[in-house]
Amino acid sequence: MPRTLSFFRPAALALLLLAATAALAQQKIIPDFSWRVWTQRDGLPSNEITSLGQSHDGYLYIGTPAGLVRFDGKNFTPSLPLERGPTALAKAPANDDLLIAPRSGGIARLTGNELIPQNLPPALAQTPVESVFRENERAYWIGFQGGIALRVEGNTHLVFDTTHGLSPDDPIQFARDGAGRVWLAGGTFLARYENGAILRVPIGSGKERLRIASSRTDGPWIVADEHLTKFKDDAVTHIDKVNTSTGAHFLQALLEDSTGTLWLGTRSRGLRRWTPDGETVRLIQVPEDISALLEDTHGNIWAGTNGSGLLRVSPGTIATFNRANGLLENHSLAVCEDPDGRIWFANRDGGVSALTPQNRATIVARPREWENFSALSVAPAKGGRVWASTPYGIHFITGAGIKHTINDERLTGENAPRVLFATRDGDLWFALPRGAIGHLRNNAVKLFTHADGLSPSRVGTFAEDAHGRLWTGSEDGSLHRLDGEKFLPVPASALAIAGAIQSIHFDRAGTAWIGTSRGGIVRLDAQGARALSTRDGLLSDNITQIVSDDTGDLWLGSPTGISRLDIREIDDRLAGRIDRLQPSPIGLDDGLDEATCLSTHQPAVWKTSAGILLFTTRQGVVAIDPAKVRAARTSLRTEIHSLASDGLQLDSSRTPRLPPRPRLVSIRYSALCLATPGRVQVRHRLTGFDDNWTEADTGSLAEYPRLPPGKYTFEVSARIAGLPGSESRSTLAFTVAAAWWQTLWFYLAATALVVAAIIFAVRRWSHRRLHNKLLRLERDSALEQERARIAKNIHDDLGAGLTRISLLTQSAQKNEGEAQLDKIYRTVSDLTQSMDEIVWAVNPKNDDLESVANYIVEFAQSYLSDAGLRCRVLIPETLPARVITAQFRHHLFLTCKESLNNIVKHARATDVVIELDVRGDDLTLTITDNGIGLLTTTETPSRRNGLKNMRSRMESIGGSLALSAAEPRGTLVTLTARLSHASITP
């Protein structure tokens, strides 16, 4: 049975935590400001910044010793290679162009990418400029080296110098008061400009070093040595006393922002802010040597430094709790909020800690007998208490420390729970490392195992639905729900290949969101389980933490960082209305360098009663205020700056026409967003060339090699992730001219030439073919005439002679040589028949299929009738009119004749069927008898030679011979040939 051990805790700790409870409701977890720094590693040409300015179109211009650069939030673009960089920047009157003071002297107006010199008195044209200040829409001031101030209004110049009291050794400072009047200061000198003159204003003893800044109300801000003052009602009013290190001697920049807060940039103590309620706060972890200050149109404060790059200060949206807040380790394994609103950390080997209203960690003391205090997890308990898991068991902790411990051996050492979960009714569930889970109620522990329906794999996360049912997710990807005393599997096909279940979260609509190790997130509701992964736009497929904020948006933690998903976008993606999700990452824009979110211990993510989201990461517990993230002032504007062909810049104000065959077309563009550049998603495409959009991570240059002639439109589109309606798009149309061989008239002429050549070639080939055909017909005609002459001569001359011999032998048979004469007669008869066959084969009148069929039929009927066999012939009524060669007729007939001869000699048949069939190009002649059939064992050599000769004849005309048994008896001889081999080519 479990045992309960009690420990006494110091009363001082209890009183401290109890006293802090009343202040928790007012606790400000998220700081007022966050900051980000850009250096040369980010593309800044120099870490030394001399001046800052913002143009009317929103770009930040930065003066450095390497020149002037334009910044759009992501990319630093060299604007003008000024010698040693500008010393000062200010907005020009009337049109808000930038006034630029090159270090070499003079003043110029920056209009677009063009630097226009401004007229100055000849005596001051080469004098180095130290400051530039805009008075109003008509006039501006220039401070020159040597104590000279120049007021410029149109073509009117007013010069003030040391004769008016200005110090020759100190740079001139300018400021504007609430009434729009200009003030000048230098060293210990202070004056106000009125009606064409400067009036000295006495202050203090007249020996204090001064720094001044413009103010929206009353007079200007004045720092006199260590005193912060302001002119009110024509008198100096003391406001506050600042540290010596923040006094006028150490101040290098002074700025009042749009909220009335005063920013003080020092040369060795960094950046400080003074609020109207009198609080002076130093921003720690920012560069120390501040050289210039600027507030942009969104209220962000920009600071230039001497050697540390560019600093931006923005309203705070996040906080990170680690060693800087008093925790013993940066990495806390689990986090939760108790019912009284206190935040608790399982700080690994740093033990259990609670957060005070001052955002400092109060560490729970460990018992003396413990060797260490390794906190594995924490979970809220009733009455402002928490449960904590350590290798010594599960502990009940109050404001006074550890009250008692569930010292069950099954829950200690390597079996100590890493996952705790408190249900709404106050019960505690926990997961053991080896697959079982436990339930703690009234200090009694009950374990559930595989026998109770659970997966044998380790449970990694718990969740409770709206009906109070407990859900578990396991490392093998199985999902279970408690039903009574048994766990039932929850089928979800989308989880089959998604890996381990690392997080389960139920939103206010009752939908379950499941984070997996390799399948992204799975949405489980009444419509079933549907997965979303990197293919749908997620930043990672390994989701370790899921939580929803007060608006219903999902926040995801992964090893690659933290991101927000608009719940409406998720619905649109699942419904197929959009192609991809656009998650909004939390990163450098919010002051977060890195966040590695893990899930080995739970709870790894928590939403406080105030709506703050807490994520455990290796770098510390990250607290995010979703409301402040959404409220961050930001805007986006795309712009196409230039078009170049092979390095030659073209005028893009009109539709440019590029020369033919450009080797490389370059287009520079930007997506201006100074507030949240890390959330800007940019893509571009060239209509007429690109099939799809190209995602552009950080680049601002699109290049296209060897564009063919035609009309093109370059499009750049950008949007801020997580901000509906923020899309901005710019287009640029241009034309690539065609070379003379790429023009339409050339194509038409070339086409006509090719067609003419084809016609000529076809006509020539046709004439040659016709000529060859005529020659072949002439040869064939002559050959046919010769064949007819030979047939006629054979028939008339040789036939007549053979007939005469036959008649003579018949008349002489009664003589003594009757036997020999009879033999001669038969030989002559055979020769006569052979001669008739030759004459038939040679005679061109018989070169058709009909003649072949008739001749074979006549011969077969005569031959078989003389042999006493019945003959039946099956021939189609009409045969194709095909002209065939004499060789084909001759070999086909002789093969047929040999087959009939074999039947008469060997088959012992009484009936013979001859069938001729023509199908398409195939001729088939079958001869069937009802004789004794095939007797291969008794074949004579002569018969084998006969079959060989028959096959040879058929093969010579491209045909074949086949022998098979006939039904019910006899032999079937099949002769096949292709008429295409027999036809005479016309």
UniProtKB/TrEMBL annotation:
Residues spanning the signal sequence: 1-25
A single cellular component GO annotation: membrane
Top-level taxon: Bacteria
Keyword field: Kinase, Membrane, Signal, Transferase, Transmembrane, Transmembrane helix, Two-component regulatory system
Cytoplasm recorded as keyword: no
Segments crossing the lipid bilayer: 739-762
GO molecular function: phosphorelay sensor kinase activity; protein dimerization activity
InterPro entries associated with the record: HATPase_C_sf, HATPase_dom, Ig-like_fold, Reg_prop, Sensor_HK_TwoCompSys, Sig_transdc_His_kin_sub3_dim/P, WD40/YVTN_repeat-like_dom_sf, Y_Y_Y
Claim: Membrane is one of the keywords in the record: yes
Domain Histidine kinase/HSP90-like ATPase: 887-981
Name of this protein: Histidine kinase/HSP90-like ATPase domain-containing protein
Taxonomic source organism: Nibricoccus aquaticus
UniProt lineage: Bacteria, Pseudomonadati, Verrucomicrobiota, Opitutia, Opitutales
